[in-house]
Design brief:
This protein is α/β, with parallel strands linked by helices. The protein has 14 helices and 25 strands. α3 (80-91) packs across α4. One of its GO terms (biological process) is aldehyde metabolic process.
């Protein structure tokens, strides 16, 4: 049984209330440990610790901050296998995917260790002989980060690494479903030598801790990854203090396959995009658009390969798909499948809960549904599960219209050999991330974020530094 604590001001602590929350293994639906259930007083203490540490951390040189971040990067790689095992235990994804995620989490620390040394200002040409004009960038202050359960390691470092590099101090609230991965990351950060109060971890219910983040004036910025519903709540309430936000919200990615594409490549890429992390990925393919002339060949190939996929406990060998995170997630996925079938959808494979011997978790068969139209919930709503609806199209213009017919605008995928079409699709699709013949476009050096109701702001690359920095202009009279 795992029983961990929160990390505040350089110490591992219980919550003020002494209450604890259970954490379950999604593969077995059994308790694996407990974690402190923080209240607003706990969150306030963490915020104050970050505030007290801000002056020291922000005054350190970029090289000093960078050195500590490099140590964290190195330590995280050393602990990769250990942290990955904990992630699979509490989140369910196959162990190989968990290892890759921890590596990605480390890469964010490495990238921003370098970006810390690349925060530049400007000198401006003056219109007056007696004036010198300059612009400097300074850290915004205390940052609160709220992270999701689907990527419990990389979403932490993608938020706090640029914040720390900029000179900000942080308070992290991880998902209550996957807190142990966050705890392990903070053990690494602590060992790397961050000054007390620079990094803080509070665990518990998002609504309670989030309210303190919103109302505490010390918090200058909130970085959030999660549902569009919660993102809208944060957006609305942050306006009371004009608090800065970056929001990475829901997605409903179209995956578009043109007749001139390599069918094998497109099928294999779709499987990677759709079924990674059991489809519980904000940028995973949600709507599969296939040009009519290759529909039969594409579907035959896809169904055959999907039927060969293995579902089970993430610790089992050769597993492709782990469990859904909990019963609520299963009910949402299955509800969309039933709705589609009731409205004329045809299941080509899957469509049911998958039972793993000796496991009580909520596994779901990798599913493909044909004859999908815009009357179905799955056409417009994010699924967050291993279900693929197939929609056909006859022309480039038609599929652009269909793909853009969404409240979301996070990621889109296009498979074609036509270079001109690639450019046209890149320009016409209303999405923040476009994968052209690429099912995994996310890398640490690139901006990650969406259009429309998929959020505001960008994380990743040098773009990810901007929202953690304030701009200050000075005019100096030299005579």
């Amino acid at each position: 049984m795992i029983n961990e604590k929160m990390f505040v001001n350089g110490s591992w602590v219980e919550s003020c209330s002494q209450k604890r929350d259970e954490v379950k293994n999604p593969a077995t639906d059994e308790k694996i440990g407990t974690i402190p259930s923080a209240n607003r007083e706990d969150a306030s203490k963490a915020i104050e610790a970050a505030n007290q540490a801000f002056r020291l951390w922000s005054k350190m040189t970029a090289y000093e901050r960078s050195n500590i971040m490099y140590k964290a990067y190195e330590q995280l790689l050393i602990k990769k296998d250990e942290i990955a095992a904990i992630m699979t235990l509490e989140q369910g994804k196959p162990l190989s995917e968990a290892k890759n995620e921890v590596k990605m989490a480390a890469e964010y620390l490495k990238w921003y260790a370098e970006e810390a040394k690349r925060v530049y200002g400007d000198t401006l040409p003056s219109s007056h002989q007696n004036k010198r004009l300059m612009v400097i960038r300074q850290p915004i202050g205390v940052v609160a980060a709220i992270t999701p359960w689907n990527f419990p390691a990389s979403m932490i470092t993608r938020k706090i690494a640029p914040a720390l590099a900029a000179g900000c101090t942080v308070v992290v609230k991880p998902s209550e479903l996957t807190p142990f991965t966050a705890v392990e990351i903070f053990k690494v950060l602590h060992k790397a030598g961050f000054p007390n109060g620079t990094i803080n971890l509070v665990t518990g219910e998002g609504a309670i801790i989030g309210k303190e983040f919103l109302e505490n004036q010390v918090v200058r910025k909130i970085a959030f990854t999660g549902s569009t519903r919660v993102g809208k709540y944060l957006y609305q309430n942050a306006s009371e203090q004009v608090k800065k936000l970056s929001l990475e919200l829901g997605g409903h990615a179209p995956f578009i396959v043109f007749a001139d594409s390599d069918i094998d490549q497109a099928v294999n890429s779709f499987i990677i995009s759709k079924y990674r992390n059991a489809g519980q990925t904000c940028i995973c393919a949600n709507r599969l658009y296939v040009e009519e002339s290759i529909k039969e060949a594409f579907i035959t190939n896809l169904v055959q390969k999907v039927k060969e996929m293995k579902t089970g406990d993430g610790f089992d060998e050769d597993i492709d798909i782990g469990p859904l995170i909990d019963k609520k997630a299963y009910e949402k996925v299955h509800s969309q499948v039933k709705d589609a079938v009731n409205k004329g959808g045809i299941i080509l494979t899957g469509g049911h809960r998958y039972h793993v011997k000796g496991k009580k978790g909520y596994f779901y068969e990798p599913t493909i549904i044909e004859n999908v139209d815009n009357t179905m919930d799955i056409y417009y709503e994010e699924t967050f599960g291993p279900v693929a609806p197939i929609i056909t199209f006859a022309s480039e213009e038609e599929v652009i219209q269909k793909a853009n017919d969404s409240l979301y605008g996070l990621a889109a995928y296009v498979f074609t050999k036509d270079l001109g079409r690639s450019y046209r699709m890149l320009e016409e699709l209303e999405y923040g991330i476009i994968g052209i013949n690429d099912p995994i476009p996310g890398v640490v050096q690139a901006p990650f974020g969406g259009w429309k109701e998929s959020g505001i702001g960008r994380e990743g690359g040098y773009y990810g530094m901007d929202s953690f920095l304030e701009t200050k202009y000075a005019s100096i009279d030299i005579y």
